[in-house]
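4.2 Preliminary Data

To establish feasibility before requesting continued support, the project team ran the inverse folding procedure on a target of 551 residues. The structure was first converted into the token representation described in Section 3, and no sequence information of any kind was made available to the design step. The complete token record follows.
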């Protein structure tokens, strides 16, 4: 009976179902781990004040957020030089985010449970997120305007919130002027310089051109002076206010308010307030630029760069993959050479991605980009325009890397279309090209979309080739802006995958970077899922549209 059961194939069906279920459990578990570790970073944790006294010093106060707890075996603790006062089996240690890096030298500190004499969560403890030196934890004593105290005690908190809102508005206005107005003027001045250099190379730089260019330059400089005056006025206004705060050791410190991003008192927040704060923190993370070597702020440029690169890659790889597949399936003579080409295409799908990066750097950047610069941008020499890694070359490199996936998927779709469909179209008087364009390709479009989905899934997470052909740690400007020609394919860009690598392995502040690695990984997965869901919805619509023809 067992032999008949095996012959029926049921065991293999159950084994396959079990393997698929196990894989799904592993994937869901991995995503849950990433989500818990990453999304927990945005929750406003309580600020704890510890009364701490180790064996070598007096009792002191430690203020910060509890991050993690570890149990160190007694033997290992003694080997590390720690003394166990209670002779227990484990040494309990707590990792506390103390912030105040400009005072303490680091953001995190390990403390031992056996030396903690007490802990509390006073309502007056506050967290100040700064533009430099990370978070500050302590108490607010007073608010100053032009060096004079304007509020103290509880009134200081209300005054600080009011003044901070004003300063943040001024800071946003300054950033807008610098990024848009000043950036546009600098861009036009650089174009003017290149035009002048082009005229000089053509021996057309005469007095009339000099006067015209001088007038344009003077007009830009006047605009620049006006904007600089506005920026100077706003900057002076924002620097009028400062905070007087006390750190854990009761040392008073003056913090300029224009260097503050946000102030909160988590210990006084209700659950609803913390939920609102959590949403605001996450929104800030996905909408702002990074700070502090990418360990603070947001990751919007990386999200933007990833999505834009994948879209450009899809625009390039789809037509080339479809054309190659159509030729191999519909036009090429099926023989030895065609079989060799198919084997080569399949083998290209297994080539390590870093090899494509080296090829892209050597062929796209140095050969094609260098020749483009010599032919069309001689005035920019010796500075490269397209002869340096950038968005265009990164997209082309990934398009080349994912081309075999699109070719194979498209060929599979073309092979499933019945021969009678082609013959019926030809019998009605259509040419072969018309049959392909109006009948065969529309019916194969779901398979084409499947290939594109697989290409997007692979390309969006690639890092190794991008390190050679365009991605950078921090891009000063986005590839898409308001300056003509608006889409700047020559610019370098940020990428979520490289951002994860940089924060996780290149950051000097490991503990601060760890939750950001999980949060960025989760966002990368969500971006890939979003792009794939969009493509899947298109594929499903096409499949329903042409289902009748397939039947």
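Position-by-position output of the design step:
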């Amino acid at each position: 009976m067992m032999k008949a059961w095996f012959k029926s194939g049921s065991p293999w069906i159950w084994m396959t179902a079990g393997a698929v279920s196990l894989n799904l459990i592993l994937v869901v578990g991995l995503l849950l781990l990433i989500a818990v570790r990453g999304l927990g970073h945005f929750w406003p944790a309580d600020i704890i004040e510890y009364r701490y006294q180790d064996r070598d010093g007096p009792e002191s106060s430690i203020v910060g957020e509890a991050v993690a707890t570890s149990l160190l075996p007694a033997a290992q603790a003694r080997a590390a030089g720690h003394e166990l006062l209670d002779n227990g089996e484990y040494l309990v240690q707590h990792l506390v985010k103390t912030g105040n890096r400009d005072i303490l030298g680091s953001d995190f500190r390990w403390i031992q449970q056996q030396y903690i004499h007490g802990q509390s969560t006073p309502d007056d403890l506050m967290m100040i997120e700064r533009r430099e030196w990370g978070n500050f934890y302590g108490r607010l004593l007073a608010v100053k305007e032009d060096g004079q105290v304007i509020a103290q005690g509880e009134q200081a908190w209300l005054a600080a919130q009011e003044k901070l809102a004003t300063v943040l508005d001024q800071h946003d206005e300054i950033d807008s002027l610098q990024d848009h107005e000043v950036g546009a003027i600098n861009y036009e001045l650089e174009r003017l310089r290149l035009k002048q250099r082009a005229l000089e190379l053509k021996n057309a730089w005469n007095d009339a051109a000099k006067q015209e260019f001088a007038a344009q330059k003077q007009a830009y400089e006047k605009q620049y002076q006006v904007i600089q005056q506005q920026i100077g006025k706003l900057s002076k206004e924002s620097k009028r206010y400062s905070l007087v705060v006390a750190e854990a050791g009761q040392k008073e410190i003056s913090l300029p308010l224009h260097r503050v991003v946000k102030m909160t008192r988590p210990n006084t927040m209700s659950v609803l307030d913390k939920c609102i704060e959590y949403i605001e923190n996450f929104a800030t993370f996905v909408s702002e630029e990074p700070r502090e070597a990418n360990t603070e702020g947001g990751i919007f440029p990386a999200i933007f760069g990833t999505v834009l690169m994948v879209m450009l890659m899809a625009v390039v790889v789809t037509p080339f993959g479809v054309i190659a597949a159509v030729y191999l399936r519909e036009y090429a003579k099926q023989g030895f050479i065609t079989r060799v080409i198919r084997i080569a295409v399949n083998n290209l799908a297994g080539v390590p991605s870093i090899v494509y990066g080296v090829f892209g750097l050597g062929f796209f950047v140095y050969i094609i980009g260098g020749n483009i610069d010599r032919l069309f941008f001689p005035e920019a020499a010796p500075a490269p325009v397209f002869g340096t890694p950038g968005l265009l070359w990164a997209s082309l490199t990934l398009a080349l890397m994912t081309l075999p996936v699109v070719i194979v998927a498209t060929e599979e779709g073309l092979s499933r279309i019945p021969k009678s469909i082609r013959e019926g179209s030809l019998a009605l008087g259509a040419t072969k090209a018309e049959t392909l364009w109006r009948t065969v390709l529309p019916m194969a479009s779901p398979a084409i979309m499947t290939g594109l989905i697989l290409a997007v899934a692979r390309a969006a997470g690639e890092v190794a080739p991008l390190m050679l052909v365009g991605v950078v740690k921090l891009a000063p400007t986005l590839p898409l802006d308001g300056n003509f020609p608006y889409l700047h394919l020559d610019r370098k860009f940020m990428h979520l995958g490289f951002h994860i690598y940089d924060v996780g392995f290149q950051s000097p502040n490991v503990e601060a970077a760890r939750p950001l690695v999980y949060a960025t990984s989760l966002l990368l997965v969500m971006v890939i899922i979003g792009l794939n869901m969009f493509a899947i919805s298109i594929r499903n619509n096409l499949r329903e549209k042409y289902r009748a023809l397939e039947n």
